Amino acid sequence: MYGGKMATIHNGAPIQIYAKLKLESNKTNIHLVWNRGLYVQGYSPTIHPTTSIDLSSISTFDVLSGSASSTSQHSDMKMLRVVHGAINAISWGILLPMGAITARYLRHIETLGPTWFYAHAGIQLFGFVLGTVGFGIGILLGQMSPGVEYGLHRKLGIAVFCLGALQTLALLFRPNERNKFRKYWKSYHHFVGYSCVVLGFVNVFQGFEVIGASRSYAKLSYCLGLSTLIGVSIALEVNSWVIFCRKSKEDKMRRDGLIATSSDKGSSGIHN
């Protein structure tokens, strides 16, 4: 038989409740689940909140030594959440956008040749493999915390993973330049790729909200990296439009005969 007291608060005034618990023979541990209620309905307390913190508020109390310890699973889950968030932020939130930037702005540089394609495919493949690991850790976290479900974050994660898998399969079924289905493949590849990037951004920020890191240095670091990518994209986009407008102007001047074409320059040295 063990006697003790419990402190609670009612209308701002503390109340001490004394109670006795009968333990099983040869056992001195009590598994305690504690929580707080929002309000009382009649004479009965209502259900407590069901956030991850509320559902993991458990500890083991040893009445013989007076020590209490939380379960090791909670600390393991906390570490897995950090690893899950870091991997997914790097893969879906940084590497995949980098691969898209590589394909969009480096493919028009003739001096690079096919190098841009290998860089694009390598970055995307590495990002997808890393994201698959993060996705697997997310599934493991769901299995370790039954009853805790983040509906929007989970649905976005599944959607992003499926789109990333479709992009990887697109590399295997890529038709050559002369194939009549090439234009349809390019439309599919661009739509799925940009959708995956946008949803990846959204889900990374959703993940920060889920783990309660909406005002953390981790989110600040990610925002700085994302801002750098956006700034580089804007600069490269402006440069691409400048080059496009310049080439369009030169082509118009050639059609109007204001600039000699290469064939005209070659024939100007031939005299009858």
Automatic annotation (TrEMBL):
One of its GO terms (molecular function) is metal ion binding. It is found in: Membrane. GO terms for cellular component: membrane. The keyword Transmembrane applies. The keyword ATP-binding does not apply. Coiled coil: none annotated. It holds the Pfam family DUF568. Keywords: Electron transport, Iron, Membrane, Metal-binding, Transmembrane, Transmembrane helix, Transport. Heme b binds at H84, H120, H153, H189. It comes from the Eukaryota. Its main location: membrane. PANTHER family: CYTOCHROME B561 AND DOMON DOMAIN-CONTAINING PROTEIN. This is Cytochrome b561 domain-containing protein. The lineage of its organism: Eukaryota, Viridiplantae, Streptophyta, Embryophyta, Tracheophyta.
